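re: ur question from yesterday

yeah so i grabbed the chain u mentioned. its 236 aa long if i counted rite. heres the sequnce exactly as i have it in my notes:
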Amino acid sequence: MSVRPVGEIVAACEAIFEDPSFAKAREWKAAVPGRKVIGYMPVYVPREIVHAAGMLPLGILGGGADMEVIHGDAFYQSYICRIPRSTIEMAINGKLDFVDGMMFPSICDVIRNLSGIWKLLFKDKYVRYFDAPQNFREEVGGVFYANELRELRDGLAKLAGREVSDDDIRRSIAVYNENRRWVNEVYDFRAASPWKAPSAEIYLLMRAGMVLPPEEHTLLMREYLAAADAANRPMR
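ran it thru and got these structure tokens back, copy pasting raw so excuse formatting
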């Protein structure tokens, strides 16, 4: 595997991070007819099931600090967290027009209610509020969570127009387990040699993984580690 200089890798990650139109995700979708992209608000979302359905999970964390929020304030009070307000802003301004569906996890009351707003605004889109159990007893939270996962699989299968099999899910779990293994490798590398892997670079590298397919992100992390290790950076 040829390795780019570490600065070039970081610049590519920063370009993904700074791009409010998600060009990389758009390119992925356009590359093969019929591909679909499912946006998600991070935390608790089982990306493996989205991936198993042949779709790209796209992490959305709002519009960032540079986006002026105008339309979003018509749906939420101005003192509400900027993430949901700017996410609505992005959607109304067409920056999410290529997204085929959205998933909203149970991370807070505002994000939960954002799923209802999305259903009102985009009636032709797949919208899913994904609830995670707070009771972890197997006969309570375990049963509830299994049902949530089945309903998600069925909904995405319907959107994909094909069955999402157990084998599909197993393959996707393997892909994401490999991705997580390399995430751990990156953090282990930084812990051992922090001057070689500044936190700003690690942040951009991980944020790129919210836009890229997991297979591509895994290769990117491997490339970054090789480049960062080879770079002549002085110890501080």
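noticed a couple things. The chain has one domain: 6-60+96-230. also Residues 166-192 form the longest helix (27 residues).
anyway ttyl
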